[in-house]
Amino acid sequence: MEIAEQNGEILTELQISPFQEKWNIFRKNRGALISLWFLIFLFVFSIAAKLLTLYSQPFDPATVRLSEKFLPPMSPFKSELVQPEDAPPFGIYLLGTDELGRDVFSRMLEGTPVSLTIGFVAVGISVFVGILLGGLAGFYGRISLGLITVDTLIMRFVDIMLCFPTFFLILTVVALLPPSIYNIMIVIGLTSWMGTARLVRAEFLSLREQDYVMAARSQAIPEMRIIFQHIVPNAIAPVLVSATIGVAAAILTESALSFLGFGVQPPDATWGNILSDGKGYIFDAPWLTFTPGFTILFVVLAFNLCGEGLREAYNPKLRQQR
Amino acid sequence: MTAFLIRNIGQRLILLVFISIIAHSIVHLAPGDPSLVDPMNPRMKPEDIARIRAAFHLDDPLYAQYAYWMRDLFTGQLKSFKDSQPVLEKIWDRFLNSLPLFLVTTLITWCVAFPFGIQSALRRGSVLDRGGTLLSYTLISFPGFFLAYICIIFIVKVFDVPVIGISTFGLEDAGVWLQSMDRIWHLTIPALIFASGSIAVLSRYVRSQMLEVIHMDYIRTARAKGLSEDTVIYKHGLRNALLPFITMFGLLIPALIGGSVIIETIFSWPGLGKLGFEAILNRDFPVILTLNFITAILTLIGTFLSDILYAVADPRIKLQ
Lengths: 322, 320
Description:
The complex is a heterodimer of chains A (322) and B (320).
Chain A: H1 2-15, H2 18-28, H3 30-55, E1 75-76, E2 92-93, H4 104-139, E3 144-145, E4 148-149, H5 150-163, H6 166-176, H7 181-190, H8 194-207, H9 211-218, H10 223-259, H11 271-278, H12 287-314, H13 316-320
Helix pairs in contact in A: 2-12, 3-4, 3-12, 4-5, 4-7, 4-8, 4-10, 8-10, 9-10, 10-11, 10-12, 11-12
Chain B: H1 2-29, H2 46-55, H3 62-75, H4 87-122, H5 127-141, H6 144-159, H7 176-214, H8 217-224, H9 229-246, H10 248-266, H11 272-281, H12 285-313
């Protein structure tokens, strides 16, 4: 009887899929779990925000009401100088107004999808370049091109990129290019792929020698298929972790660029440029600084904690020490 | 050993050449010209622009401009586009200003991050560890200038000391004591804020290294021999946990110079970061390029030294 029960337990333990096992570890980290829910909420919220600011008149972030400037958060709308159709949503300035009387709440709504897009597209570019170059160096590294091998060529290029002071490089390029949100995303992405490339190369080097890759080769499966169907999914875990943290870093970089005046240009709003616009009024209208500041802080924190949870779930070494 | 050194230095010199070529191409291929800094100025005639472009060799092909830059750099003749001052002298002056900031920042980072990381690894799961983890993540997640603004307001309101700039204007005749206190205040706040982010990153890293090491067999052996806990942790554990940090020395330099752009701009600290930022605003190509080039040289020297130190510290590694 007891043995049967024990067997049953072992069986259920064996039946847990790898994903479920990782999910169980991830779930135990309360900070990471809360962050994950927060981020999921934020994505839904940002889609809603995009639609609202585009199609709903009260949510229009560009509505200027000069007589209503610098109102503190939660002030009700009761001006007679402003057209009633320009009233803020729900007739109340939830987060106050800025120096042009624009509703900070609507501007934050407009900034949410923009800031998240910058984070995700920049990281998407850096992960793509990182996997491509890291994979090439790891899988085809031994092929020689005249004097040097592919591996040497790519890894020396990584070394070169690491020698540049990253933020200074980003700033140089963004300042010289015409200011546009796409340039910012591309530049951040193209200057932050080195870590991913190194990770992917290391994973590829060890995975390439595994038996299952040998088995796949023996069946004459095309190399591209081996790489993308058999190796990449196994190498993706550390990339996922560093990508999650990369989104956080990209959002911070954007806000730093905005601070120096090279971020997304007005009238488009991002959290970064609302924050840097607000800094001039920090004594008269502190909410202009603190609202976007703490929003960035919490969102970046959520990405970082989520990344840490993922790292724990995917790294068996850390798990044993628990 | 000698062969290793020669090959290593040779590789780095080749890297340096490529770095200079890439930096030069990035800066010169991007649109935006030094002659276009002031397009609205009515006194700028097309002839003036042509004269400026000729003076700066901007109409020459790219490889010729690269050759001019290299020649001027190594003969020390390189002049800034903006004020025709020698670039190397300018960078050296600013570097001397930045140096105390960098040193104090690094010192604060290490003095806080290492003890803190070690303690939180040893007391895993304690209040110190959990609180420290949350605090580190919060510090990493703060937009740098937002944190700086909050700190400036707090410091100025509570302690009533000026923190902007390298020293207070008009204190040149004051006593040595007052002047040095003034300098220290001006230095500490930017250094603390500059260090906050790296403290968080580094202490997390120290913690995970330490955790990895204390579960090793040789630590159990050391305990089994009956060594005191301090000897086990600090002599057997810490020395092994510290090894990977040697490799971090080299990459410290680009991080410091890149990070100083924001901090020095906020605090009006006349250092390298601010020089770089001003040069970017003025499209002052020689300064931008030379700053990048010097950073790259420093980084390569740093990684070279850390490679050698690593081999010295870890007898398992053999230089070939």
